[in-house]
């Protein structure tokens, strides 16, 4: 499925991704977040994980866009109530960020 356009004809209680949305550039990520908001039920939730860092790179042939907690907060907070935003270790200490948020 296209993570930017999310071309579906139904609504959802929740949307989950594990280290997927970091493959989008900033503009496509903003579009995806808006589309997620549109297709969620009124009290729907999102749960996403991101690689923590700054900038972007091509890693093993794939685009990776790193984010800080502040960047993720600013991307989601206008349309979502942040329930959890915290760093965790997947491979190295604090290399990842987990977001859980509810549609406003």
Topology, element by element:
Blueprint lengths: L11 E7 L7 H14 E12 L4 E4 L2 E4 L3 H8 L3 E9 L7 E8 L1
Parallel strand pairs: 1-2
Antiparallel strand pairs: 2-6, 3-4, 5-6
Keywords:
alpha+beta; Rossmann fold; 21% helix; globular
CATH superfamily: Vaccinia Virus protein VP39
Q: Reading side by side through the largest sheet, how are the strands ordered? A: 1-2-6-5
Estimated helix fraction: 10-25%
Calculate the mean pLDDT score and round it.
97
Structural class: alpha+beta
Low-confidence stretches: none
Tell me the count of domains: 1
CATH architecture designation? 3-Layer(aba) Sandwich
CATH secondary-structure class: Alpha Beta
- What about the largest sheet? 4 strands, mixed
> How many DSSP H or I helices?
2
- Quantity of strands, as a count: 6
Compute the separation of the termini in Å.
25 Å
* SSE series: EHEEEHEE
Strand proportion: 35-45%
* CATH domain fold name: Rossmann fold
> What gross morphology would you assign?
globular
Evaluate the radius of gyration: 13 Å
Question: How would you characterize this protein structure?
Answer:
The structure is a single chain. It contains two helices and six strands; from the N terminus they run E-H-E-E-E-H-E-E. The longest helix has 14 residues, at 26-39. Strands 1-2-6-5 form a four-stranded mixed sheet. It has a two-stranded antiparallel ribbon with strand order 3-4. The chain is an alpha+beta fold and 104 residues long. 19% of the residues are buried.
């Amino acid at each position: 499925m296209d993570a930017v356009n999310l071309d579906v004809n139904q609504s959802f209680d929740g949307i989950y991704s594990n280290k997927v949305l970091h493959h989008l550039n900033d503009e496509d990520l903003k579009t995806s977040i808006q589309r997620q908001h549109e297709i969620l039920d009124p009290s729907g939730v999102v749960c996403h994980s991101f690689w923590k860092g700054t900038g972007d790179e091509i890693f093993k042939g794939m685009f990776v866009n790193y984010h800080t907690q502040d960047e993720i907060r600013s991307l989601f907070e206008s349309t979502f109530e942040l329930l959890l935003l915290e760093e965790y270790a997947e491979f190295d200490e604090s290399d990842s960020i987990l977001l859980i948020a509810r549609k406003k």
